[in-house]
TrEMBL record:
Keywords: Glycosyltransferase, NAD, Transferase. It comes from Gossypium arboreum (Tree cotton). Residues 214-314 form the WGR domain. It holds the Pfam family Zn_ribbon_PADR1. The keyword Glycosyltransferase applies. InterPro entries: ARTD/PARP, BRCT_dom, BRCT_dom_sf, PARP1-like_PADR1_Zn_ribbon, WGR_dom_sf, WGR_domain. This is Uncharacterized protein. Residues 94-185 form the BRCT domain. Coiled coil: none annotated. PROSITE patterns: BRCT, PADR1, WGR.
């Protein structure tokens, strides 16, 4: 209240909150990617705070009369990002460098946004490289950068900084080329996994349930109650999976809802849960969990019709099955 109401995020129009010494956006730039914008000098709404006429709070009424239209600026302590540079005896870049020294490659942006950045950077004297070159300063990634793995691998080989889009936003806001350290994206390695599973019917019970020898995946009214979900976001480094199954006994009618979750490529993070319940309850619980995780109904996900990817929610993966023997297969699960 002292410094004025915060304006909207300039990248996605989301809300800003103070966290970790900076104002950070908590919105989404698309259904696939969380907004990564952060700043120490946010735009603020001009004018006085408004207090409801019916308020009986004497303090608020007195404060309302005494508040000034022009709010004081909030001064935050400087970030200590230069310590690692000093240890190496060199500075990655100078705080007084001109925007004309920007030579960047950009991936993952919609065509309209990419053209807008090209215009701004070229107007400032900088350059946007369609492909990474020897004199490229950094690789800027944003949104859904699927299909640009080659550029990210090339950047890592050349030891180029891979930064978020808000690096460019802050460079132009401060009218200078900034250091990369505060904007770097965690490098995400590629991974894949091949496991042996036993198939009964048209699917396979996950081995982590411990029921693969005595049970099978429930098939009812044409539905196969088995799905693998993924939530990945390059801008934040999130890459999580969620496995959901209804497992039915081979010799009986007992059913179990099995869940397994974690981070792709890291078995130390995550967990699993197995619950026994009647068939009708298991189907209801399965559909509830699918809706909770994806924001879509099970029917939409199963038929792949009218399924809409929701910001911050999981998305169903297609599992590729390679058959080697009549009763055993190798299951290749895309993990990245």
């Amino acid at each position: 209240m002292m410094f004025g109401a915060l304006g909207k995020c300039p990248m996605c129009s989301g809300c800003l909150r103070f966290s970790g010494g900076k104002y950070r956006c908590h919105g989404y730039i698309s259904a696939w990617s969380k907004c990564s914008y952060s700043t120490c000098e946010p735009e603020r709404l001009k004018g006085k705070w408004k207090v409801p006429d019916e308020t009986n709070n004497e303090f608020l009424s007195k404060w309302f009369k005494s508040q000034k239209i022009k709010k004081p600026a909030r001064i935050l302590p400087p970030a200590s990002a230069s310590s690692s540079q000093a240890a190496n005896g060199q500075s990655q870049t100078s705080n007084v460098e001109s925007l004309a020294n920007l030579k960047v490659s950009i991936v993952g942006l919609p065509k309209e946004s990419l053209e807008e950045w090209k215009g701004k950077i070229k107007e400032a004297g900088g350059m946007v490289h369609a492909k990474i070159k020897t004199d490229t300063n950094c690789l800027v990634v944003s949104g859904d950068s699927e299909g640009h793995d080659a550029e990210r691998r090339k950047a890592r080989r050349m030891r180029l900084p891979i930064v978020r889009e808000d690096y460019l936003v802050d460079c132009f806001k401060k009218q200078k080329k900034l250091p990369f350290d505060l904007y770097k994206v965690e490098a995400i390695g590629e991974a894949s996994s091949m496991v042996t599973v036993k198939v009964k019917g048209r699917s396979a019970v996950h081995e982590a349930s411990g029921l693969q020898d005595s049970c099978h995946i429930l098939e009812d009214s044409g539905s196969i109650y088995n799905t693998t979900l993924n939530l990945s976001d390059l801008s934040t480094g999130v890459n999580s999976y969620y496995i959901l199954q209804i497992i039915q006994e081979d010799k009986g009618s007992g059913c179990y809802v099995f869940r397994k979750w974690g981070r792709v490529g890291n078995e130390k993070i995550g967990g699993s849960k197995l619950e026994e319940m009647p068939k009708s309850d298991a189907i209801s619980e399965f559909k509830r969990l699918f809706l909770e995780k994806t924001g879509n109904s099970w029917e939409a996900g199963e038929k792949k019709q009218n399924f809409q990817k929701q910001p911050g929610r999981f998305f169903p993966l297609d599992i590729v099955l390679l058959i080697f023997f009549p009763s055993f297969i190798k299951c290749v699960m895309p993990l990245a």
